[in-house]
């Protein structure tokens, strides 16, 4: 049986006027490889998906950012001023501009959860940069549901348990090993293989002077992202003019009706599939399936472009 050697990514930085976007890069040794950018979910970081993304490096030139307020990115992230995800759209456009300039080609945008939503918004705004999209349970919630959550908060009935839970997250641990042991098999990490948990902790913490480790995505910022639903994802879907593929979860999906159907209307040839047995953490539960989806989407694009 062939032994798969996991390639270690390079850590790079894209300077911006108010800081820098930190990102990981695999497979930049061959200009013929397909460029693809991967955007992570809220509270995570690019390294979280290394067990998946590293398997693509033989065929793809992969970049995976740490979004604003996450990982090693240094852009401002003030929870008190956070109202929508357009800031991620704009940051992702800057990443796409640089990646397209570097490779001389349009790029594929892939993303999970919040990263999928940001990728849709970026592709809708700048189709000149984007060859296509691979969406993995993107956050697409009907405006009526968002309105109910806002009203519930105004009248004192809560309305966003994800945000409330994020605010209560423990931010400091004695060391990374303790974090891994605490997370593995529990809570949101219940279905994650251990290597994904280890990479999440590696990419999502910093070592303090006293040797303890602290989350790089502050609980207050993670909570603010759950609450910052002022963007119009439906408008971006209506303005989408690039091919795509969509995998969404069977249990607890954040890609809720009517969005799978609305997306399919934008690209009748798109592969849209609900993955049996999956939860919102589909990339961690079925990494080989996601990698196969990315390769199949690349093959589709190449066939159509011949």
| Number of helical regions | 12
Biggest sheet, open or closed, and with what strands and sense? 8 strands, mixed
Report the helical percentage: 25-40%
Proportion of residues in β-strands: 15-25%
Rg (CA only)? 18 Å
The unreliable regions are: 146-157
Side by side, the strands of the main sheet go: 1-2-4-3-5-6-10-11
List the helices and strands in order. Answer: EEEHEHEHEHHEHHEEHHEHEHH
- Shape type: globular
Describe this structure in words.
- By secondary structure, the protein is of the alpha/beta class.
- The chain contains 12 helices and 11 strands.
- It has an 8-stranded mixed β-sheet with strand order 1-2-4-3-5-6-10-11, sandwiched between helices.
- α6 packs across α7.
- The chain is globular, with a radius of gyration of 18 Å.
- It starts with 9 loop residues before the first strand and ends with a helix.
- About 4% of the residues have low confidence.
């Amino acid at each position: 049986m062939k032994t798969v050697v996991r390639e270690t990514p390079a850590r790079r930085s894209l300077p911006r006027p108010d800081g820098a976007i930190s990102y990981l890069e695999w497979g930049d040794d061959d200009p013929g490889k397909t460029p693809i950018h991967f955007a992570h979910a809220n509270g995570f970081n690019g390294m979280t998906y290394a067990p998946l993304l590293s398997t693509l490096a033989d065929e793809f030139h992969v970049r995976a950012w740490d979004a604003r307020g996450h990982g090693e990115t240094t852009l401002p992230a003030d929870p008190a001023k956070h109202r929508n995800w357009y800031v991620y759209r704009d940051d992702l456009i800057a990443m796409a501009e640089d990646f397209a300039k570097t490779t001389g080609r349009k790029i594929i945008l892939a993303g999970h959860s919040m990263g999928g939503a940001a990728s849709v918004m970026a592709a809708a705004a700048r189709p000149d940069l984007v060859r296509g999209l691979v969406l993995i349970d993107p956050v697409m919630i009907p405006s009526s549901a968002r309105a109910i959550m806002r009203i519930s908060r105004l009248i004192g009935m809560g309305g966003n348990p994800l945000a409330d839970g994020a605010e209560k997250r423990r931010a400091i641990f004695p060391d990374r090993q303790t974090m891994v042991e605490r997370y593995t098999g529990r809570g949101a990490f219940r279905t994650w293989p251990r290597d994904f948990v280890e990479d999440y902790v590696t990419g999502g913490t910093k070592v303090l002077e006293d040797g303890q480790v602290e989350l790089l995505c502050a609980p207050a910022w993670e909570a603010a992202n759950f609450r910052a639903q002022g963007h119009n994802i439906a408008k971006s879907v209506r303005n989408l003019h690039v091919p795509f593929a969509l995998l969404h979860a069977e249990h607890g999906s954040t890609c809720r009706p009517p969005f799978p159907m609305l997306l399919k209307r934008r690209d009748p040839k798109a592969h849209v599939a609900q993955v049996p047995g999956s939860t919102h953490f589909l990339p961690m539960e079925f990494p080989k399936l996601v990698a196969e989806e990315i390769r199949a989407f690349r093959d589709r694009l190449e066939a159509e472009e011949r």
